[in-house]
Amino acid sequence: MAKSAVSKLKVFAIVWWGYSYAFRNIPLMFRAGWPLFMVTVLFYLAGFMAAFPDGSSIFHGVAQISSWLIFPLGSHFAVAWHRSVLLGEMKPKIFRLGRPEISYFLVSLLFFVFIKSSSWIESMFQGAPFTSLASQIFLLVLVTTIILATPILPALAISDRAMTVLTIWRQLCGNWIRFIIVAILLTISASAAFWIANKVSFPSDTILWWAFHLEIGNFGQARFDVFRVALAELPRSLFLGAITIVLLSAQLGALSIVYAGIVRRTLASKANYAAVDRLADRLTV
After folding, report:
1. Is residue 61 part of a domain?
2. What total number of domains does the chain contain?
3. 176-185 in b/e burial notation, b at 16+ Cβ within 10 A?
4. Ordered alpha helix ranges (H), 212-267
5. Burial tier of 232 (Cβ tally within 10 Å: 0-12, 13-18, 19+)
6. Secondary structure letter of residue 262 according to DSSP
7. What tens-digit pLDDT sequence spans the chain (285 residues)?
8. 92/252 Cα distance (integer angstroms)
């Protein structure tokens, strides 16, 4: 509690810390997130398999179902990751369904619905110059507002019931632009890393196709061998699933530090933030 709310975020230091914390805690990551990891791998594998006409209807359904599961399992993992950063809980329960997980899921879902609904509104006015511009401005304002409200998520993860969105906005005053830049850098770096991972995994994918005597050009043939194709695509799906968990962990870690370092430091709290306060000293100026 040594610093005031006028402390400034070290943008690049926070982004770097988010990634370094993720890579330094790989065992924790997969202990807390193995259900999410498995469903994410299934989502990628089903998506790859759906490219084949012989199995598209089945695997499109599997991909759809797994995409629905990713959201609640992602919320479950996010709560565990926030609590590891903020409260030092390094041995989370593999399955935990309490008030933090439910609240986190519902608020995250609300954010998603707001952004999705604004995209629908924008598509309705597509083609009309003035209304299209107005809808894009509205979407930008909405997304910015939601980004500035995201520190409520770590508060939900640690059951900080006194925290509100208005309090967060007040505590972030003077750091709005820096926090938005942190969010943009995390998004850009994650997108770039995933694009590179996808490109890197493709050659190995081709080698496995050759090893299993599968012909890439014959997707539509009746000789579609589900088992051999799944084996060929599984390593790529596992790799992309692992990358996804790492990138998500980096974003959650950075958000936790913003919450503890700026939003929460000047407010009374029953939680022990001593270690996080010392860390935040290096991530704020």
Report:
1. yes
2. 1
3. eebbbbbbeb
4. 226-258
5. buried
6. I
7. 344 446 788 889 899 999 999 999 999 998 999 999 999 999 998 887 777 666 567 788 888 899 999 999 999 999 999 999 888 888 877 777 889 999 999 999 999 888 887 767 666 666 555 566 777 777 888 888 899 999 999 999 988 877 888 888 888 888 889 999 999 999 999 999 988 887 877 666 665 555 555 555 544 444 456 666 677 778 888 999 999 999 999 999 999 988 887 766 655 555 555 455 556 566 666
8. 16
User: In this structure, what DSSP letter does residue 207 have?
Assistant: H
CB neighbours of residue 1 within 10 Å: 12
Q: 257 near 85, Cβ under 8 Å? A: yes
Written as six digits, the tokens of 84 are: 């590891």
Which range of residues forms the domain containing residue 220?
A: 11-283
Is residue 142 within 8 Å of 118, Cβ to Cβ?
Answer: yes
Please indicate, yes or no, if residue 218 is contained in any of the structural domains: yes
Does the residue 6 lie in any domain?
no
Domain-embedded: residue 23 = yes
> HEC states along 91-119?
CCCCCCCCHHHHHHHHHHHHHHHHHHHHH
Residue 139 CA to residue 121 CA, distance in Å, equals 9
pTM: 0.83
